[in-house]
Design brief:
The complex is a heterodimer. By secondary structure, chain A is of the alpha/beta class. Helix content of chain A is 19%, strand content 34%. Chain A contains 6 helices and 15 strands. In chain A, the strands form 3 sheets. Chain A has a 7-stranded antiparallel sheet. Chain B is of the alpha/beta class. In chain B, 33% of the residues lie in helices and 23% in strands. In chain B, the strands form 3 sheets. Chain B has an 8-stranded parallel β-barrel with strand order 3-4-7-8-9-10-13-14, surrounded by 7 helices. The N and C termini of chain B lie far apart (73 Å). The chains are: A alpha/beta, B alpha/beta. At the A-B interface, β1 of A face β5, β6 and α7 of B.
Chain lengths: 250, 311
């Protein structure tokens, strides 16, 4: 965890809605892993007040690619202040040969570096874009990845086959939809597979993180009896743990 | 050393800049980012007698130039927190002040009793709720006073300071912290619901300065200013308004390095900035571009003279 400056090297428009910016980052922040993020300040003013979460989608040496809305304005040479890496790397099962990623009502940005890591290891990756995520431009995705799109959270082509096919599933949904969705997803996966082992189904929980170092306690996530800061131990949580207290209440 | 409070056990700190409660965790979490030893002390997050869970629903709502935060004061309870952090408080890089959330006088008394003899704890801060009356404040601070000789700080609610400050002083508080972040309500853009919580932002400074100025004239005990401090000038304004020390809060989220800069400025430890120096060459812990630039300058390409100079 460091606070350091980074320099925007290149800005390119991927589609009408999103742009990708390449940033040169400090040595202390180059080892960022899949799912980890930076808390970024792009301005010296206090509006916006909190830092923006920046999740890299690609890493190459000291350069990271970040995806942002094209409504924001960036220019090469611009200096940004980064705090991070925040959180832990999304765990990838050693035995996994197939990986299913699900983005529900959210861009798949938080999953793309994981996809890149998995593809580099020879793992077959499929991505389901659900709800408003179907509008995400396919040209921003790795070509080796199979993509399915569906309007409903629980309906997409070949859903049963894909869940059966996957050795591991990682899903992302934005707050406040995240926990209810992960609960429904777990039920759905349980209907398809007889048993859901720990470490099989992960959900990303990404609430606003004011401090990023586990001090302010604004991003605590309930996992069974414990409350865990998402900025330290997230963003990936085992959905079994996330829903454990709900199961106890049933 | 600066004497913040007098009395049987005076509170003496090396620096008048203190980390406010609710921001810096329990035992120097910010040591990863800044040199905490430059601060006078840190006030821990809130502790209560019994464990408390985090608030459900939205906890953070971004505002124009500010933020609304509602954590619900989650904590493991004084017994567990004491077990986990007593050693860290004792061996920490700076003194700690424990923030006890005022629930009932009995609970406050029990919490304070546990903390009374803990090494590394130099004072106890009692956080009075927004609804505290003159009587409530007297009971809470009185219960704490009966159970400790440590310096007692009373953190006052922003919109009730005048009434409560006199009660806290009468009940035995050694200093007043003016003030806790006020409560507000805002619409969460994600859920579309109205959410209540504490407000943080630079605009709180105007309210805080007004309150400090008013209270400093009303009471005989020292006043510590808190609210909206985002740079050294803000902190100095509080001292000019009558505070003996300041507490910095949400600036740590915005610019963690600024906490250290404020502490260095008020503690006479400011680094001198050379003319033409890049920002990261003089601000602590901001990166290595200066090092990289120095390496580049240290090894310029060798100048090779042409083999035959023209006549």
């Amino acid at each position: 965890m460091h606070q350091a400056q980074a320099i925007i090297e290149r800005v390119r428009r991927v589609s009408g809605a999103i742009q990708q910016i390449d940033i040169a980052v400090d040595k202390s922040q180059q080892n960022i892993g899949a799912g980890q993020l930076f808390l970024a300040r792009t301005t010296e003013t206090l509006d916006p007040y909190l830092r923006e979460p920046w999740t890299p989608v690609h890493r190459e040496g000291s350069s990271l690619t970040i995806e942002r809305s094209s409504a924001q304005s960036f220019s090469p040479g611009q200096v940004v202040n980064l705090l991070g890496p925040v959180g832990k790397v999304i765990p990838l099962r050693e035995s996994a040969r197939t990986l299913l990623l699900i983005a529900y009502e959210s861009t798949p940005v938080s999953l793309l570096m994981l996809a890149e890591t998995a593809l580099a290891k020879g793992i077959a990756v499929a991505l389901a874009l659900l709800g408003t995520a179907i509008h995400y431009p396919l040209e921003a995705l790795p070509q080796e990845m199979e993509v399915q799109r569906g309007y409903d959270y629980d309906q997409w082509p070949n859903q049963v086959e894909m869940v059966k096919w996957a050795d591991q599933i990682v899903a992302v949904a934005p707050p406040p939809l995240d926990l209810p969705y992960y609960g429904r997803l777990l039920d759905s996966v349980k209907n398809t597979r007889r048993e859901v082992a720990p470490g099989y189904l992960y959900g990303l929980v990404q609430p606003p993180m004011p401090c990023g170092i586990g001090a302010c306690q604004a991003c605590l996530v309930r996992c069974g009896k414990d409350e865990i800061p998402a900025c330290l131990d997230g963003p990936a949580f085992d959905v079994l743990a996330l829903t454990a207290h709900l199961a106890e209440g049933k | 050393m600066i004497e913040i409070t007098s009395g049987k056990q005076p509170l003496r700190l090396a620096n008048p800049v203190i980390g406010a409660s609710g921001i810096f965790g329990y035992a120097g979490e910010y040591a990863k980012l800044i040199d905490l030893s430059k601060l006078g002390a840190i006030v821990t997050n809130a502790v209560t007698l019994r464990p408390r869970r985090a608030a459900t629903g939205t906890r953070v709502v971004p505002l124009d130039s500010g933020v609304l935060v509602h954590t619900g004061l989650p904590n493991l309870g004084i017994h567990q927190i004491h077990r986990l952090y007593a050693t860290k408080w004792k061996n920490g890089p700076l003194p700690f002040i424990v923030h006890v959330a005022a629930t009932t006088p009995e609970e406050v008394g029990k919490c304070v009793q546990i903390l009374d003899t803990t090494e590394g704890i130099v004072a106890i801060e009692i956080g009075l709720s927004d609804q505290s009356t003159h009587r409530d404040a007297k009971l809470m601070i009185g219960a704490a006073r009966q159970n400790t000789q440590l310096p007692l700080l009373a953190k006052l609610p922003m919109f009730n300071v005048t009434n409560v400050s006199v009660a806290a002083e009468e009940a035995g508080a050694d200093a007043l912290v003016v003030a806790a972040p006020p409560r507000g309500t805002a619409r969460d853009p994600l859920s579309g619901q109205l959410v209540g919580g504490r407000l943080y932002g630079p605009w709180l400074k105007a309210l805080g300065l007004r309150a400090v100025g008013a209270i400093a004239r009303h009471v005989k005990i020292p006043v510590i200013g808190c609210g909206g401090i985002h740079n050294p000038d803000d902190a100095r304004d509080y001292l000019e308004a009558g505070a003996v020390a300041v507490m910095v809060d949400s600036v740590a989220w915005i610019r963690p390095d600024m906490v250290e800069i404020i502490a260095r400025n008020l503690g006479g430890l400011e680094l001198t900035r050379a003319i033409g120096a890049m920002e990261d060459e003089w601000r602590p812990g901001i990166g290595e571009t200066a090092v990289m630039r120095a390496q580049l300058l240290a090894s310029p390409p060798p100048v090779v003279p042409p083999p035959h100079l023209p006549e």
